[in-house]
Amino acid sequence: LREQTHPFFAPSHAGAPLWRLAVPTTAAPLALPSAAGGTQLIEWGGGQRWWIPAQPVPAAQVRAIAHAAGGHATLFRHGDKSEGVFTPQSAPLMAIHARLKAAFDPAGIFNPGRLYPEL
């Protein structure tokens, strides 16, 4: 699983979005959109759930499902990255991220916009 060589990650899903949802291990099964279909792999005792939807699903909807379960969702690969790969941070947390980035990269040359467009 760590190297994503498990058949779940096989090239048969090439080009389909791969979502990584991190939720508490005690979270109930996620209410993923049935219309989107797809396949799911659960690891880490239920705390990490991989999902490859058969149909596109808006990032905000996937993130809302993860948030309702007490977690967050990351668009791990492929899919529409225009809504961002990572769950948007609250303003106070983003301010901390910005200050850390400024402290470690004052010239702003290391991967600008890689994690969040504004960093």
What is the compact description of this entry?
With 119 residues, the chain is α+β, with helices and mostly antiparallel strands.
Q: How would you describe what is shown here?
A:
There is one protein chain. The chain is an alpha+beta fold and 119 residues long. The chain folds into 2 domains: 7-85, Alpha-Beta Plaits; 89-119, no CATH class. Helices cover 20% and strands 18% of the residues. It is built from 2 helices and 4 strands; from the N terminus they run βββαβα. The chain has helices at 59-68, 91-104, and strands spanning 18-22, 39-43, 48-52, 72-77. A 4-stranded antiparallel β-sheet has the order 2-3-1-4, with helices on one face. The longest helix has 14 residues, at 91-104. The radius of gyration is 16 Å and the shape is globular. The protein starts with 17 loop residues before the first strand and ends in a 15-residue tail after the last helix.
